[in-house]
Amino acid sequence: MSVVIKLGGSVITRKSEPFSTRSDVMSRLADEISEFLRGGGDHGVVLVHGGGSFGHSLVRECVEEIGYVNTQCFARVAFYMDFLNHLVTEALLASEIPAVRIPPRSICWGVGFGECDFSVVRRLMNSGVVPVLYGDVVLSGKEPKVLSGDDIVWYLTKSLSLRKVIFVTDVDGVYDKDPKLYKDARVLSNMRLSDALKEASFWEVPDVTGGMFSKLRKSLLLDVRDVTIYVVNGFIPNNLLNALKGKNVVGSVLWV
Ligand SMILES: Nc1ncnc2c1ncn2[C@@H]1O[C@H](COP(=O)(O)OP(=O)(O)O)[C@@H](O)[C@H]1O
Ligand SMILES: [Mg+2]
Question: All domains of the chain, ordered by start, with CATH?
Answer without folding.
Answer: 3-255 (3.40.1160.10)
